[in-house]
Structure formats: structure tokens, C-alpha cells
Design a protein that fits this description.
By secondary structure, this protein is α/β, with parallel strands linked by helices. 44% of the residues lie in helices and 9% in strands. It is built from five helices and four strands. A four-stranded parallel sheet has the order 2-1-3-4. Helix 2 runs antiparallel to helix 5.
């Protein structure tokens, strides 16, 4: 089987929480040169240790949070992201998909990518399927 051909790496991109959670298992060449995360990702990671009663899993999640906090200066959830969220929400609603509840966090990450004009790297491309006309979605 011939070796996999990679497209040229992008200079910068936003990592979805799903990518940050599995960062150690992802080939760095599949990611942009400069990694960014939304403040929403750090919020999701901060909730992680509190969402399990398993002590070993809680320790794993706490470690993941601390590594992410030490590695990334998150892009803020500001007025520009809030306005971009309106466009993201409209695209999701037009596609007939749910845009509230737990899904809203994914869409806020997408809004961060839109407002920053950066591609969004994810392990869950179906979460962002209807947003391809607004942001570039890169599956890793």
C-alpha cells in the first residue's frame, strides 16, 4: 500500500475539544503548525473531572485539563464570537438540526473559528456538517 499523502499543513487552526482530549494519539503532522483553542474548550475540560465519580478517570481528566491550561492561551468568548454564533446558529437551524443544549458548546467553538477566520480541527465532523459554507472543517 502506498504511503499516505498529506496535504500541506495549515499555519494555524482551532482544535475542537475532541482533538484536545486525544492530542497525544494524533500525529502532529495532521494538525496545523500553530494550535489554538477556544475558551469554551477549556470550560468543557474544566467540567470533565466533576462529571465522573470514577477516581482514576477523574485523575485522567484533571491531568488533561492541567496540560491544556499549561499549553494554550485560549481565544476568548467575546463580542465578535457572539456575533459569529448568530451566523452559526442560523446555519444549523436552516439545516433543521438542533442548536441548543449540549450542542451549543460545539457551536460556540465553531463561532470562535468563524470569528478568527481559522479552520476547525475535529474528531467529530458530523457535529459541524452543516457549517461547511461558513468555516473549514478538518477531520483528524
Amino acid at each position: 500500500m502506498p504511503p499516505r499523502v498529506r496535504e500541506q499543513r495549515r499555519a494555524r487552526g482551532i482544535l475542537d475539544t475532541s482533538v484536545v482530549m486525544e492530542l497525544e494519539r494524533i500525529d502532529p503532522l495532521d494538525l496545523p503548525i500553530e494550535l489554538a483553542v477556544s475558551a469554551v474548550t477549556l470550560a468543557e475540560l474544566a467540567a470533565g473531572p466533576h462529571a465522573t465519580s470514577d477516581l482514576a478517570e477523574r485523575a485522567t481528566r484533571q491531568d488533561r485539563l492541567q496540560r491544556a491550561e499549561a499549553t494554550f492561551e485560549p481565544l476568548p468568548l467575546d463580542g465578535t464570537v457572539a456575533r459569529a454564533y448568530g451566523r452559526i446558529y442560523a446555519a444549523v437551524a436552516a439545516a433543521g438540526r438542533r442548536a441548543r443544549g449540549r450542542r451549543a458548546l460545539d457551536l460556540l467553538i465553531a463561532a470562535t473559528a468563524l470569528s478568527s477566520d481559522l479552520p476547525l480541527y475535529t474528531r467529530n465532523p458530523d457535529d459541524f456538517g452543516e457549517l461547511g459554507s461558513l468555516i473549514e472543517i478538518v477531520t483528524v
